[in-house]
Recover the amino acids of this structure.
């Protein structure tokens, strides 16, 4: 047995004793089997022994081999991997504040609007997480928690799919969004806590000033990474549909405030990114992760990893048993 091979259920190997027992029983049964006697046996002797005569004694060995293979499969042979798996769960607590104001319908990311692109990129971002707890805050004229911090990425992506504009009162309450996100992170025990703010406009609503909210984040040692979505200036904006149901686009001025985004990031120790296309938004989210220090949420030591090796033994057991039954019922069938 190779030095790196071990059995997870070694006590099952005691069942290997069944194999010689089966061979003994088969031999004993053959000795006790009734035979037909002929007065002129020399007639048969001159005919010679056929192939069946030589193969028939092999049937008990096929059955014993099937039992041996099955027992080895049950014992679960495993080979140890040279790599060691770290059991410490590393993760960051991240709250994403996503702008749902009507300006996110702008078509400068066509064929999709800003919101649809942001949702797709965020879905990919969520899929790439392993141990990071994620939360989602949505805002326009007011801010609301759409999902608390969770490791259930499937549910989070379903929540993300349902997001629409024109559901909340219109506006861009950046300060309220930051404050709501901080409230989600306030009781977190993770060493790395961060807010990712994704917006396409300037603050024009809400009860809390964005800079006041940024100062609150700084006092809690929570960096805010701001991503400004869109090109700014005049951009295509939907103005209804024509007689054929096609969307009518019109160049509309949508104000942005990159200085505010930069100031929020600077005050909190975060970073400011500008996304003028889907790839830019994806890179911005990746840069956020690259800039963060991983925090240990749970200490668990280390463990070796193993590769299961029972599959070939299990296949061999089924194959040998099937071959033995097939031969016994056809070519090597014995009468009576």
């Amino acid at each position: 047995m190779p030095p790196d091979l071990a059995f997870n259920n070694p006590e099952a190997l005691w069942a290997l004793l069944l194999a010689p027992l089966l061979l003994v029983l088969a031999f004993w049964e053959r000795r006790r089997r009734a035979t037909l006697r002929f007065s002129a046996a020399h007639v048969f002797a001159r005919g010679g022994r056929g192939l069946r005569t030589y193969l028939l004694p092999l049937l008990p060995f096929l059955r014993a081999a099937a039992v041996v293979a099955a027992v080895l499969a049950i014992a679960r042979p495993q080979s140890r991997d040279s790599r060691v798996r770290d059991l410490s769960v590393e993760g960051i607590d991240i709250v994403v504040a996503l702008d749902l104001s009507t300006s996110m319908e702008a078509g400068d990311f066509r064929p999709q609007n800003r919101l649809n692109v942001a949702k797709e990129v965020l879905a990919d971002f969520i899929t790439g997480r392993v141990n990071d707890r994620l939360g989602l805050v949505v805002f326009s004229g007011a801010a609301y928690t759409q999902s608390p911090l969770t490791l259930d990425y499937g549910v989070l992506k379903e929540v993300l799919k349902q997001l629409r504009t024109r559901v909340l009162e219109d506006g861009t309450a950046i300060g309220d969004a930051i404050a709501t996100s901080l409230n989600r992170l306030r009781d977190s025990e993770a060493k790395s806590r961060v807010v990712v703010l994704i917006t396409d406009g300037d603050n024009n609503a809400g009860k809390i000033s964005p800079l006041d909210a940024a100062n609150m984040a700084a006092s809690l040692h929570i960096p805010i990474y701001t991503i400004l979505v869109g090109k700014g200036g005049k951009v295509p904006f939907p103005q209804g549909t024509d007689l054929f149901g096609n969307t009518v686009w019109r160049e509309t001025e949508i104000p942005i405030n990159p200085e505010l985004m930069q100031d929020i990031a600077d005050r909190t120790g975060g970073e400011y990114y500008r996304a003028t296309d889907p790839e830019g938004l994806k890179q911005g989210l990746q840069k956020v992760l690259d800039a963060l220090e991983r925090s240990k949420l749970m200490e668990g030591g280390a463990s070796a990893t193993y590769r299961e090796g029972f599959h070939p033994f299990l296949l061999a057991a089924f194959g040998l048993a099937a071959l033995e039954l097939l031969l016994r019922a056809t070519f090597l069938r014995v009468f009576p």
User: Anything to note?
Assistant: The chain is about 40% helix and 25% strand. The two ends are 44 Å apart (CA to CA).
